[in-house]
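for the writeup, i need someone to sanity check this before i put it in the appendix. the sequnce is what the collaborator sent (i think, or maybe the updated version? ugh). structure was predicted straight from it, no edits. if anything looks off just tell me and ill rerun, i have time this weekend
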Amino acid sequence: MGARGIAAAALAGLALAASGCAGAETPAQLTAPPKATVVFGDGAYRPAHVRIPVGGRVTFVNPTTELNTAETGGIDTFELDRARLDRQERFDTHVLRTGEAESVEFDTPGTYEFHSSLDSRMKGSVTVVRP
């Protein structure tokens, strides 16, 4: 495994540890630390679903050579659903190149489904809960 493969494996391991995917979250996991990491790779987000407390932060990392994004539904979805627009935030990491990362903070409880605008196979969600 080359240096890039080792780095990608290490980032994926960090993502699993940070997201609490080893099992059900305990109250301590939801309050300290309030962050998770999602890694882009091989046509998927790893992990695809994370759970964080209100005020938590998700960092999206791209260790691959492919350009990629993570964003909530398109503007048309939000234009048609005003009630949902009022209680949910939108986010868009914009295009992340190799080695780039971007963090998004979540202050409102709810489930935020996201996808890649550059790879239709990539879908995920962030669930934000009150501690």
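The first helix runs from residue 3 to 19. Residues 59 and 103 are 4 Å apart (CA to CA).
thx in advance!!
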